[in-house]
Design brief:
alpha+beta; two-stranded parallel sheet; 8 strands; 42% helix
Amino acid sequence: MRRLVEARARHLGFDALRVTRPDAVPDLPGRLSAWLEAGAQGEMGWMAERADQRADPRVLWPEVRTILMLGMSYGPDDDPLALLGQRAHGAIAAYAQRRDYHDVIKGKLKELGGYLAAKSACPVKVFVDTAPVMEKPLAEAAGLGWQGKHTVLVSRALGNWLLLGAIYTGAEIEPDEPERDHCGTCRRCLDICPTDAFPAPYRLDARRCISYLTIEHAGPIAPEFRAAIGNRVFGCDDCLAVCPWNKFAETAREGRLAARPDLAAPPLAELARLDEAGFRQRFAGTPVKRTGRDRFLRNVLIAIGNSGSRALADEAVRCLRDPAPLVRGMAVWACGRLLAAAECRDLFRDHASGETDAQVLSEWRAVLEQGKDRRLSRELS
């Protein structure tokens, strides 16, 4: 039966399938609890919700006897780190330049799960990222790869570029051996992180992670992280792209999770002009759409502020009148980065008189103090 299921999985576009038991990671409850108690999940409250189910697959579904972990490659054709030098363009994480993997993988898992259920006469449940399932520890236990020092799953055959899905089944299937750690003394993924999001190897503080800040975090991004974000407008591939195991990875086969050319390096000027309808149209069917227009433009304006481009300052000035306070606040910050103090004072007089949002006013105050305009700054106090 397993050979048949593996052949079907390959036909559906999965690159790897391994098997484990629901009790294969006995220390998972303690690891998850310690991470949550440290607050390292930031605003991702869903990580704490149903933590008991997340830490033990048998609590999520008592009938589970075997877990099939599946991986699908999204290996990029080009080096994502090269995008960081194109400061007038936005860098979007490689996985998000494709169709939303939730939709792609969920449909394939359902088809494969149905096939397994028919062959085994046992019930199945399928999960991809949105359920309380700890995919990476289970994938390591199944031998699909190992969690590297950056906490991402690394495969000897597919590198870091791996999307995961799980099938829980009531069938008894012989498990595979766990994968051992092959990181050795390498710490490239830790050293390259622009915001020092790894307090120690194998530990991630999501509150400092650019992927978290640009995607999950809802409000203004703390000033201490803005310059380090560079031109990353959605996610961050740095710790993945630098891993030496990627040299063994195959890129995704044609037609499967293919990247959209218009998302490879979109001009910041175009992105800054997206209204709600334009944002939805531009990012339809991709993970970017789920973040929402206002949060995305917040990221775009941070990238504009980091661009060093006087021409892009005009886009930031235009966004000073945006309906969303989140966007206006980052537009103020970008203007402060790109324009002279006198220009910022003129903009303040033109745009801040009717401002009522406390966070936007705080951004104006910071820009004025930076330009040593103490008098106007005191007027905001």
